[in-house]
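ok so heres the complex, two chains, lmk if somethin looks off
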Amino acid sequence: MVTAQRRRRARRALSAAAAAVVALALAACTAGSTAVDPSPGPGGGVRTDVTVAVAAEPVNLDFTTTSGAAIPQLLMNNVYETLVKIDQDGAVVPLLATSWDVSEDRTRYTFHLREGVTFSDGSAFDAADVVASFDRVRTDWLNAIKGKMDVVARTEKVDDHTVRVTLDRPSNAWLANLGTSVGAIFPSDLDGVDLRTTAIGTGPYTILSVRPGDRIVLAGRPEYWGGPAPLTTITVRYLSDPTAAVNALRAGDVDMLFNAASGDQVRQLDALGTFQVVEGTSTGDVLLSFNNRVPPFDDVRVRRAFAYAVDRQAVMDTASAGYGTQVVAMVTPQDPYCEDLTGVYPFDPARARALLAEAGQQDLQVTFDVPNLAYATTAAELVASQLADVGVRVRIVTDEFPAVWLDKVFTRHDFQMSVIQHSEARDLLTVFSHDYYLGYDDSVVAPLAAAADAGSPQEYVDGMRRVARQIVDDAGGIVLYLAPTLIVADPALTGIQPNAVTESMDLTRLAWR
Amino acid sequence: MRTRVAWLVGQVAATLAVASVLVFLVLRVLPGDAAVVALGVNATPDALAQWRADHGTDRPLIAQYASWMGGLLRADFGTSFVTGRELTPLILDRVQVTLIIVGLGMLLALLVAVPLGTLAAVTHRSATGTLIAGASQVGVAVPNFLVGVLLVSFVAVRARWLPAGGWVPPAVDMAEFWRHVVLPSVALGTVQAAIITRYVRSAVLEVMREDFLRTARAAGHTRGSALVRHGLRNAGVPIVTVVGVQLAAMLVGAVVVERVFVVPGLGSLLVDAVQQRDLQAVQSMVMVLVVLVVAVNFVVDLLYTVLDPRLRVVGR
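and the predicted structre for the whole thing:
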C-alpha cells in the first residue's frame, strides 16, 4: 500500500515534470527538448525475432476509415510515424520533425523535417507528404477522430524539409494530438493503395504478412532512418482468450504478453519468478457511467451518492487484481493537467445514504447494463453489492459486447448505468460532451475547455484542471480505476515501454539482451 | 440404385434450401447494428450510412437473401462486413483447417476404436472386455475441451514438448504443421474413440449372436475368421451410421477445440464473426457447415446401399 502510494506520488511528480517540459518547450517557441533516441542496431543477441501476444486483432489496417484501438495499437510508431511523439512521460518530443517554431500568436507552427527518411516503399519523405497527409484527414478520413485536426486552417510546404501549419486559433491540445494516429504521415501518392491491406510508413517496421484470426508479422527495416530496426521480425499473435495467451507464454510459443492476461493471471505468472512483469499506465479508464438524461441520474445528488457508495480501490483490487491506478477523473498521469482528485469522493456509505435521502430516493432500483467482458462483470458485481449496502437495488443486465452494448447503450442511450473501459488518450472532453452516450450537460465545461485550449500553456493546464474538477464535482460518471498496462515477458527482452501514453503499443526498442 | 441416389439428392437439395432460409432469418433477429460494430464508436454518421449502402444492409430482406443465394450458387460468399475481405478464400482456408483436424481426429478414433471395440466384444466376458467397456464409458463422459485443457497443461506448458496452440499450414512448414496439429486432433479424437469403441463393441456383439456366424463356424471357420469374413461387414451398417453422426458432431465440437488451441479454423472464425455481427460471414459459414453435415449423411446413406443390398429399394 505504502509503496503503491509512493509510486503514485512519483508518477504524479513525473507528470508534473512532463507538464513543465511541455510548457517550457512551447513557451520557448522551439522544441528544445531532448531528441528521441531510436533503438540502436542489433544488440548482438542470438535471436532477432520476437513473438508478442495481444488480445484484440485489427479488423484491417486502415485507421483512417475504421475506428477501434487495435489498428493504431499495432501500427503507430512501429509502422507509421508522426512529426512529434508523446514520450513515456507524456512530453511532446521530436520524431519526423527535428524541431518546430511557434509564432507569437501561437497559430503558426513551422516544422523542420528530418532529412534522409524513407517510406517502406522506398520513396523519400518530404514536406509534400506532410501536407498531403494533413489534408487527407479532412478529405478522406471517415473516423471521427479526424475532428482533432479541425483546428488546422492550412498546411503549406515552405521547402522540401519545412512545413508551415496555420491554425484557426491557438490550440494546446493540437500539438499533442499530432503524436497520435491523426498525425500519421503517409506517402503523398496513395493512388491505387488500399490502406485496409497495405501500410506504408516511415517507421522501423513494415507489415510482412497478415493471417486473419491468427497473426500479423512485422519485418524490421534495415534502412530505417534511426538505424536498422533492432529485430528482423516481430510476430504479433492475437490471442483473445487470456488462458490461451498464458499457456502460449508458458509453453514458450510467445515471448511477451502485452495486456493479454488478466490481473490474476499476471500475479500468478509473477509468482513463478521466471518472467519479468512490467506494469505501466494506460489510457484506459474503466468508467462507471450514468445516463445523465434519465431519472434518477438527472439528479446530481444521486450521482454523487453513487460516487460515495462505491469503494473504487476494492473494485480495482477485485477486477484487476490490484493492478492499476486510482483516478476519479478521466485524466491519466501523463496528461499535463493531471491532478489528484481521488479525495473528492472517499468511500463513505453513510454520506451516500444521506444524499439519497435528500434526493428522496430511499427505495431506489436501477438497471445496470454490463458488457460481457471479464473486468466489467467482475467490477459490476462488486459495485452492485456496495450499492445494495446503501439501500440501492441493482438489477444487472448482461449485454453481449460489442454488438448489443454498442447498439443499446452507446447508440440508443437505452440504459441507466453501465461500465466500460474508455481507451482513447485524452478523452475527457469527448466522453463528457453533450452528445456522447452519458448525456453529460457540458454547458459549464465546454466554454472552460475552449478557453483553456486557446490559452497559454499554463492557462491550458489550469483550465483543464478546472474542467476536470467540475466534471468530478458533477459526477457525470465515475472512473473506477485506470487500467494498467500489464506486460509479462521473457526476462531477456529489453526495450519494453510500459506506459501506453497514446493508443500505440510501441515495440520500436524491443530487443534481446 | 439410380432412383435411390436421385431420391437422396432431392432430399439434400430440399434440406439445403430450407436451412438457408432459416439461417438467413435467424441471424436477422439478432440484436445489434452491424454497421456500428464494424465501424466502432468513432464512426461518423456519414460513414455509417455509406457502410450500410456499401454492404446492402439497408435493402429489403428478400433482396438481401436473393443476392446472397445468387452468390452461393456461384460459390461466391461475398465480402466480409467487417474486414472488407473476400470471404470465399477465407472460408475455404478455414474449412480446410477444420477438416484436417476433424479428419485426423476421426482417423485416430477409428484406428483405436475398431480394434479395441472388436476386442472388447470378443472378450466381453473376460477382464479385458470389462476394462475396455469401463474405460470407454468414462471416455464418453469427458468433454472435448477438458481433454484439450489437460493436453495443453501437461504436454505443452509443463513438458514443453509441443506448442500450446496456433497453426502453421502444411504448405508453409510441414514439420511445424505436424507439431501444431497433433494436440487438437488428439483432443478431438480421444473422446470420439471412446464413443465409437462402445458402438463397435455392441455392433460386434450383436453380430456374434447372429445365426449366420454360427453357420460359418459350423462350416469350419474359427471364431476370429468367421467374424472377419462375415461379421464385420454386417456390423458395418451401425458403425457407419455412428461414424457419420459423430463426424457431424465433430464438426461442431471442433469449435471448442479450436478455441482451446487457438486454431484458426471455421469454428473460431464463426465465433468471431457472430460477435462482430458479420452476418455475411456467419450465414455463409453456417451454410458450409450445413453442407458438410448433409454431405456426410448423404455418403452414409450411399454406404448403406453398398454394405447392405437389402436397402437398395426406394423408400426403405
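quick notes: Chain B touches chain A at residues 30-34, 36-44, 46-47, 50, 82-85, 90, 94, 152-153, 156-157, 160, 162-167, 259-262, 264, 268-269, 272, 275-277 (CB under 8 Å). thats all i got rn
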